[in-house]
Structures are given as structure tokens and as C-alpha cells.
Specification:
Layout (H helix, E strand, L loop, with lengths): L7 H20 L9 H13 L9 H17 L10 H11 L15 H7 L15 H18 L4 H4 L1 E2 L6 H7 L6 E3 L5 E6 L11 E6 L7 H11 L13 H5 L7 E2 L1
Antiparallel strand pairs: 1-5, 2-3, 3-4
Helix pairs in contact: 1-3, 2-4, 3-4, 5-6, 6-9
The protein binds a DNA duplex (20 and 20 nucleotides) through α1 and α3.
DNA sequence: ACATTGGCAGCCATGCCAAG
DNA sequence: CTTGGCATGGCTGCCAATGT
């Protein structure tokens, strides 16, 4: 049953907020569950105004807190009408008023040139799988990951998975990208990628991504063809593996495998 | 009078990052 | 590793403008 409720990151975030709220209630001598008008007002003001231990949180974070506490009610069949009460929105909007919007850090887009440079190793590969060394396999895998992610506008979460995710094979092959999700068109002018799960695919219907052949140094079709030829794997295996040396040197986020 | 369209802001599950 | 903070972005409902 629990497995059908929220999973992964969202669940752990919510649990964290819920524990923090419970601690607050204990200190204030308030009963935590179900959330009451008093306990929620007390908690929200303490979050919005800050206290000796914690600085004031952003109004949007307070909204996320509301969602987390509401999620507890939903999961436990408790009534959640209280959370719709306008009073709490007004508290948050009140906190928003005196605080100007903070500047967002500028992050420049990754360019085609960047991808070309990163995947330059694909230009010189041995002709047969038997001649692939561990290092060259590493390069092939990461270069393919770069090109496909760039060409397909793929989010990290759609493409990457954690070592942990490999433990349950059935869930892995039902939710993550595997070799069977790559199809080439007969003329090899494009490849089709099936995303079984995507952040925006809330109904879990699957999303088709078309990767057009570009023929330049960032061509995803070229990379995928070379990968399938020189690093053959079963249909239920991940499309590419992140090189161990990249994990160890922290060139890429820890514990992520493409 | 009712239907459709499009802009808009709020929602919230999920993402990344930093600190402990 | 966990926790906290907050940005992200598709979906949704609302509303006014426009169409029928």
C-alpha cells in the first residue's frame, strides 16, 4: 500500500518537514496530528518570522511546508479542508510583501560546441567490441550520454538513475531508460527514444523523443549507433553506464549512473 | 446568452545544491 | 549519508476578451 503513495524524493522531503513540525509542536506543547488551526498558525508564524534557531524561510518554502503537512493528512485519511482556509494564504502573502524577489543565479546554456568537445572521442574508436578497452568504453558511454541528453532536451532525472535503482529489476525496466527504448528509423535519419517516466508525464503514459541525425560532432544518432555496436548489452540493461572514474573524481554528481 | 480562447498566477511534485 | 532551502515548470482554475 505505502508503495502506491508518494515515492522517492518528494516523500523524504515531506517526512523531513513533518518531523520538523512535530518537534515544533512538542516544544509548544501542542498536539501535532491532526493539524489544527492553532498548531498550523503557530508553526507557520515561526517559519515565516524565524526564531533563535532558524532564520525566516521564503514564503514559497512555507507553501511547500503546507503541502507537506497536507500530504500527511491525505496519506492517513485525515480531513484536509483546513489547508484550504484563506487565513494561511494571507499569512504567507503578508510575509511576501516586505521581501523583494531575490536575484536568481545566471546559468548559461550548454552549447553544441560544448557537446562536440566533450564527445570528441567518438571520432576515433576501434572497429570491433573485442578491441574496446575499459577507458574507451567509459568514453563511449559518457559521450553518448552527453549527445543524447543534449539533442533530446532530456532532464537529468529522465536519463539518470542511482545504483540503488538497479536493485529491483522489474521496477527498473518499467521506469528507467533501457536499451530496448532506443529505436532507429530504417533510413537511419533519426532515432526514437521512449521515456517511460518523465517529471511532466504525470499519467505515466510514456513520452517519445525523436533524435534527428545531425551529422556533426554532436550527432546523437551517430553516438547511439556506435554504442550499440561497440558496447552491446541486453534490452533490459541501462542505455549507458557512467564511467567509474568520473564518479570517483566527482566530475559528475555522485552516485549517478547514466 | 453561451462557448471558446488566451493570459495569468498559484499549486506542488520534483530538481539541484549546500551544509552538517 | 540526511536535512534544509528554494528554484522549476506543467497543470489547473480563474477571468476577461472575443466569437457564435
Amino acid at each position: 500500500m505505502d508503495g502506491l503513495l508518494l515515492t522517492g524524493r518528494s516523500r523524504s522531503v515531506y517526512l523531513s518537514v513533518q518531523r520538523s513540525y512535530e518537534k515544533h509542536c512538542a516544544l509548544q506543547n501542542l498536539s501535532a496530528w491532526p493539524v489544527s488551526r492553532q498548531s498550523l498558525t503557530s508553526w507557520l508564524s515561526s517559519r515565516l518570522l524565524g526564531n533563535a534557531n532558524q532564520k525566516a524561510v521564503k514564503p514559497d518554502t512555507a507553501l511547500a511546508d503546507l503541502a507537506a503537512l497536507r500530504a500527511y493528512h491525505i496519506d492517513n485519511f485525515l480531513d484536509d479542508k483546513l489547508f484550504d482556509n484563506k487565513h494561511f494564504r494571507r499569512l504567507i502573502d503578508g510575509a511576501r510583501r516586505p521581501n523583494p524577489v531575490t536575484k536568481v543565479r545566471v546559468r548559461n546554456p550548454i552549447s553544441r560546441d560544448t557537446i562536440t568537445t566533450l564527445s570528441a572521442g567518438l571520432a576515433a574508436l576501434p572497429p570491433r567490441p573485442s578491441e574496446m578497452s575499459a577507458n574507451i568504453l567509459d568514453d563511449l558511454n559518457s559521450a553518448t550520454a552527453c549527445r543524447v541528453a543534449f539533442a533530446g532536451f532530456i532532464r537529468l532525472g529522465e536519463f539518470a538513475y542511482k545504483t540503488d535503482d538497479l536493485r529491483t529489476r522489474s521496477i527498473f525496466s518499467a521506469t528507467k531508460l533501457t536499451r530496448s527504448d532506443v529505436r532507429f528509423s530504417s533510413s537511419l535519419d533519426h532515432a526514437q527514444l521512449t521515456l517511460k517516466r518523465s517529471k511532466t508525464d504525470r499519467r505515466h503514459g510514456g513520452v517519445q523523443i525523436i533524435l534527428a541525425k545531425t551529422g556533426d560532432g554532436a550527432c546523437p544518432v551517430d553516438a547511439l549507433q556506435k554504442l550499440l555496436l561497440l558496447d552491446p548489452k541486453g534490452p533490459r540493461r541501462p542505455i549507458v553506464l557512467l564511467p567509474q572514474k568520473a564518479i570517483q573524481s566527482q566530475q559528475l554528481p555522485l552516485d549517478l549512473i547514466y
